[in-house]
Amino acid sequence: MSTADAAATGVETTAGVRRTRIQTVGAGAAVLAALAVGHVVVTAFPVDERVQASFVRPAAVGEPVDLRYARLTVGSPRGSTVLDTDDGSVLTTPGVWLTVPLTIEASGQPRALGFAELLGGDGRTYRVFTGGRSSFLPGTAQPGVPRYATLRVEVPPGALPGAHLRIGLQPDDQRRDDVADIDLGLTTADADAWATQVTPLHAGAWSDESPERT
Amino acid sequence: MSTSTTARTVASDDAPGWWRRNRWAVAALPVALTLALVASGDRVRTLWWIHDLRVPTTGQVGETVTFRQQVDGAVGAEPVDVRVRLDRVHDAATLPDDMVLPAGSRAVQVDLTLSADPDIVLAGCSLAVRDAAGTRYEYVALGWGAMQPVAPCVPEDAPGPMPSLGDLDDELADSDSPPRPTTWEVSPVIVVPDGVEVADVVLWWHMPQYLELEAPGRDT
């Protein structure tokens, strides 16, 4: 090898090492950039919330709403400070007892609706469980056989104007499933009247007999 | 061509290409993607797939069908091994005691003949009828004022062994209950809406497996 050849090879080796380092650094930078972009996509946009969000089906009082698992019709809400639970108990409240009649027509298979909450006009959420003072326990409805149930919830009068009632299937998980959102159409006048009402409301157990027939 | 150009060309030809240098990673990529999908898909199975009737064992009209399944119990798997024949589906001539049908509904009686070893645990069964659209109407033991047998697939007075609870079995054993016969008949009643035509009867112990029996006379 001549002196000129050795010099040229030495130049190429040095250049090759430099290029390899540049490529390595570039690949590392590309990986970091990809991770950064992924982080931005995951955190900067509400992807998870949108993917997991319930399918909210709005309706008004008396208007049937078709859900994946049932057709639901909410009747006219009533209010008082006294509630007759039809099991020997009479419950009073310094707030308002709100009762809402519901008609559930299951579809596909028997359904036991287990989720209810009141989105108060005061911005608070009042959860209604299947037991306790505020309760919604409609049992399992056979498809094609209407189930009549009454939801009861104890709230401060200020929660009533503009309140919405939400009804769903699973007690603890409404992700990616239908949820009925019923505008109860309540006003401040309703709240004021019911906050001084002492005539007991009746909220008995569920039935497959229409209340109009009993 | 200069000497330096020749040296660069030789070095370039000898260096392995990108595909060759990363061939193992490229080969592993589809495997990794498949594993990732399978791993995430496991939640589809555990959270959704197994919670409904998915895996049928079917029987034609008048056919005696053998149904076998391993059901997880409190102290391990217990076998279900039973032979079932659907004899008839018809409007119930007499309602169970105290049953009051809601408006717009009727009572359908399902006549079944079953055979099984008396030691097999069968008490945890569920029964339903379905229409042609697949809508499922289930047997309700306590409903519409009536008290029917809790398990619709075994004799009420001789249901056979209960699922094992380990050391409590001896304490809970009902010595007065006679052994279940090897062959018996049951006739549970199911409430369905008026106008529903029963297409098949389904019987199951633990989802997703189930027994699907075609209802006689639906084509006539």
Can you describe what's shown?
The complex is a heterodimer of chains A (214) and B (220). In chain A, the strands form 3 sheets. In chain A, strands 2, 3, 4, 5, 10 and 13 form a 6-stranded mixed β-sheet that branches. Chain A has helices at residues 3-44, 47-52, 188-195; strands spanning 55-60, 65-66, 70-74, 78-84, 90-106, 111-112, 115-119, 125-128, 140-141, 147-155, 164-168, 178-183, 201-202. The longest helix of chain A is centred in the first third of the chain and has 42 residues, at 3-44. Chain A has 214 residues and is an alpha+beta fold. Chain B has one domain (15-214): Immunoglobulin-like, CATH 2.60.40. Chain B has 4 helices and 12 strands. In chain B, the strands form 3 sheets. A 5-stranded mixed β-sheet of chain B has the order 1-12-11-5-6, with no helix packed on it. In chain B, a hairpin with a 4-residue loop joins β11 and β12 (209-214). The longest helix of chain B is centred in the N-terminal third of the chain and has 25 residues, at 23-47. The interface between A and B is medium-sized, with 22 and 22 residues.
Quick summary of this structure?
Chain A has 214 residues and is an alpha+beta fold.
